[in-house]
Amino acid sequence: MLQFASSDSSEKSKIAKAESMDRRNHLHYEMRSRAVGILQAGARQSAVAKELNMHCSVIHRLWNHYQRDKNASRKRGSGRRRITTSADDRYLLQCVRRRKTLTARQLASQLFAAVERPISRQTVSRRLHERGLFTRRPIVCVHLSPAHVRARLHWACEHRSWTPEQWGYVLFADESRFNIQNDFRRAVIWRETGTRYRVPNIFRKRPQRWRVTFLGRDEQPNQPLRVRWEFHHAV
């Protein structure tokens, strides 16, 4: 029985300690004003602490602070100073505006070269996140020359009057490109949320040297499928 009693008491002490730690969190302004108002009405500090589910020491410090400063708002804590200044933050933002593909490590190196003060890449990321900039994969589209635009428009105008029966004979049309250069899906850019399809955030991919087009079309039902391969030399 004694062992069970000791275990129960230890569990209760842990719960009480956890609750006291929860109650020691910073109070928001509305709760502080409410506590001060109740104290001004003549209530005891222990009664206010019980009413608001707080520790008595919290109410005691709050009341002393109000009597000393005539203000219930919390003073700003003396935490660790920011390693970057406002000028450093503007410099990082300017570098990102110029080159969106710079990594946090590269930005930290550029800032170190400018101010001669070491800064981690995590700090650079946090500063840019505060400005609403995050790393995202860009939208990649094919780079179209004026001739390509005119050709696609001409093809669309020729086929805009096609009926569903005419389109029913077209089995598939696929245009494949073979790329031996870098993959744009591995690159990331710094951009704001909701700006995915803006022109500066879109990468235009140059057409490759060779392009193969497969077109399968069945001229008549119940006839063998004819496939045409077209090789185009991209300019």
UniProtKB/TrEMBL annotation:
Chain segments carrying region Disordered: 1-24
Compositionally biased residues, Basic and acidic residues: 9-24
Domain Transposase Tc1-like intervals: 89-160
Any one GO molecular function term: DNA binding
Biological process per Gene Ontology, one example term: DNA transposition
InterPro entries assigned to the protein according to its UniProt record, in alphabetical order: Homeodomain-like_sf, RNaseH_sf, Transposase_Tc1-like
Protein name: Transposase Tc1-like domain-containing protein
GO CC annotations on file: nucleus
Classification via Pfam families: HTH_Tnp_Tc3_2
Subcellular localization(s) per the UniProt record: Nucleus
Record's signal peptide: none
